[in-house]
Write a structure and sequence with these properties.
About 80% of the residues lie in helices and about 0% in strands. The protein is mainly alpha-helical. The protein has one domain.
């Protein structure tokens, strides 16, 4: 039963995202599909999260939040540079990322910069990680939820990119015990991707 509790948020996200993709096929671009799926998942994920726990402490230091956004952007740029040096993009397709970054800037900001990080953190750190943490040590929970998060992205380049980021996100969740910090870090990382996509 605990396994179901761990994976049910991911299944919820996959089913709603798949349904949106099928119903809106050909009418919406990849970023618009991401935005719509995120907006549909948020109420259900939020309900599950609220049911699971209440924040133990409201650690909402504004400076720490700003640092998380900047650190996420910096980590994105650093890891993107490493992957470019390794020339991984020459070995594997990154059509999913290219499709997301082909949308108009306002949609990219809403979908990639705001909605997707909020939804993905709610699902993967707020629910999956916390539920794993009830069964496993912090270390195993960080690694396994990061692995699931990276595999969920569905292609090699995004999985390789997402895994170390998800490790950081898991550590942030463990240390801060507040979902706001992983959300801000993730937003910073995604905003950096949007900005570099413009260049």
């Amino acid at each position: 039963m605990e396994i179901w509790r761990i994976f049910s948020p991911v299944l919820l996200h996959a089913v709603l995202s798949g349904t949106v993709a099928i119903l809106a096929a050909g009418r919406l671009d990849a970023a618009e599909l991401t935005l719509l799926a995120s907006l549909l998942v948020l109420p259900f994920g939020g309900w599950m999260y609220a049911k699971d726990r209440k924040e133990k402490k409201k650690n909402r230091n504004v400076f720490a939040g700003i640092l998380c956004v900047l650190a996420g952007g910096g980590a994105n740029l650093l890891w993107s540079g490493v992957l470019s040096l390794l020339r991984i993009q020459e070995l594997f397709s990154n059509e999913a990322q290219e499709a997301l970054l082909a949308a108009g800037l306002p949609v990219q900001i809403l979908a990639l910069g705001l909605a997707a990080p909020l939804t993905e953190e709610l699902i993967f750190r707020g629910l999956v990680y916390q539920r794993m943490r009830n069964l496993l040590s912090a270390g195993w929970s960080v690694v396994l939820s990061a692995l699931l998060f990276s595999l969920y992205h569905g292609n090699v380049i995004q999985a390789v990119f997402a895994f170390p980021m998800a490790l950081i996100l898991g550590v942030l969740m463990e240390k801060k015990q507040n979902l706001l910090f992983p959300i801000l870090f993730h937003m910073g990382a995604n905003f950096a991707a949007v900005l570099t996509g413009l260049l």
